Amino acid sequence: MDSLQMVALGRPFDLGMLYDCRSDKLIPGITLWDKEKLDRDMRERPQPNSEFRIVASESISDKSSSLGVEASLKASFLCGLVDVEGSAKYLKNEKKVHQTGQSHSVMIKKIPEITIEGSGALKMEDKEREKANKCSCTFHGDFLLEKSPTTFKEAVKVYQDLPRLLGPNKENVVPVTVYLLPLSVLDSKASKLVRQISLKLVTKAENILEGFTELEMWCNDVLKSPAGQMFPKISKIKTFKRMCSEFKLGLQRTLSQKLPLIRGGGEGEAALAEVLKKVAQGPFNSDRLKQWMEDKDDETNAVKSLMKLMQNTETVSSKNALSDKVSDSEKALVFVLTSLDSTEPFLSELEQHLKGSKSDSSDAPEPRRWYSSEDMIYTTVRRKAKLFSDFAEANKDKDRKSLRFLVVGLADKNQEGSAVYLYEDGFRVSENVELPSKPGAVTVGEVTHNTVSLHFSAPSEGAHSVTEYRVEFSEKGKEEWNQQLQAEAGEVTVTGLSSYTEYSVRVRAVTDLGVGPAAAPKTSIRTLPYAPPEDLKGTASDTEIRVQWRRPQVEQGVCIFLFRWILHLSGSLISRSVNKTSACFHVRIRSSPVSLCCLGRRHRCFGLCC
């Protein structure tokens, strides 16, 4: 067999050392020649070379390719046979969470072009400097630095100092590539490397192990999210992560036993293929693991959406924390997510597989996904959350000592998805509180100079908890809202308004716990500028009509400059205008049935008065 070439990966290779290619391990303390002979016969030749390469990937495949690691050695690294050191520790630098690193890659590409000014500052544009300040650095190398770089600026300095770090006589160099001569060249009876692991099987093993690394990052993303932090009931993901890690370590242990046997001829490659086949056919196959995580991702996103919807409430992370909060208030309304801790048959199946026993969980029915957008449960949960948030917003001015709004995750098998609990003085008094929605559409009826007639219907949700209704009105431009109570839904007349004034009007349901969200007409309302003429008196004969009235009182700024009368005479209309100073008028007619109406006219406005 010809000599083998491989990368050192920071391992302490030296001339004459023995290396076991079956297990990819150095055999320490033994050399075929003594040091004097090695030094005497050793020849050195400088081969200066440098490369700069960006690897914008976290996969073992891309990172090992950048370091020149061939397939068989990569297989040994993946199963833990090779313990890398120095710069090769880059292979073990796994991200714990997913991150977007596009801007980081752009900045790293600029490192060879950046110069350091006399003051020590980097010569960069402001936008580049802003991106650089967001970068962090971890150094993996074969040099002992005085200080490990942690910032972009420090990374640039280390890059520029690398040639100097080799030492004046290159005394700090380490092996990068080594050449191995088979012992069978010297002694035909020596142990031989019978076969290498095929690239196809190495790639399969790599994909499986990379899949577990990706799942670990995925789990960390969920656990570090606000939903994962505030709702530990999602801790089932911690259990999943632990079991995946346990299975991965077991698989690596099996591979580390199989590889040396296959390379030495003790077993064929079929043994490794069988191990990988069992993984693909078992519960820990990548498709089932990813499907479960996708479901949990959907659940987390649903919780995150609900948290955003109820951001005006307070989230508590545990039952004990909830007890402290509700004991600190006279009353507390608690929105409970009841299905976060639901049974997971798949996790039971994984647990049984790790114990070496077959589970019947695969035959168990799939749990109902309350968080699915296509499921009525989630629709109901979201509707309840909106009602809870609206009710909290309507009562935000209440002191927290008297009424508090909380969100928590607690198991409740009797209410799927969610429930609203009521606590009084720390004790739960109700587990099914129904909060009112806003009343039905508010429509405007008759408007006078000091009243407005409204019509509204009862709320579509929680109407049975309503004790009365509150009509609120406010002059445009003012913050103060006046109130008028109404016993039942339907018609209501708002009184005590000022003439010729624009008002905002809204209606709320009132309960024993507080008020519900408000419903309002589509537009604001303006009252009329004046009342109808008062003490209207009229006499009529066959040929004449006489009418008298008393001028109405008007608000300051309103000026009546004439009255207009309209006569309905045998199907036709006769209009007459009367000077503002007059309080009577008459008209001659032929004998006919007559009805009349008076219009008071003011600047830019006509108002119906009688």
From TrEMBL:
Which PROSITE patterns does its entry note? FN3 (PS50853)
Show where the Fibronectin type-III domain sits. 438-530
Record InterPro entries: Cytolytic_pore-forming_toxin, FN3_dom, FN3_sf, Ig-like_fold, Stonustoxin-like_helical, Thioredoxin_11
Membrane-crossing ranges are: none
Q: Which Gene3D superfamilies match?
A: Immunoglobulins
The protein's name: Fibronectin type-III domain-containing protein
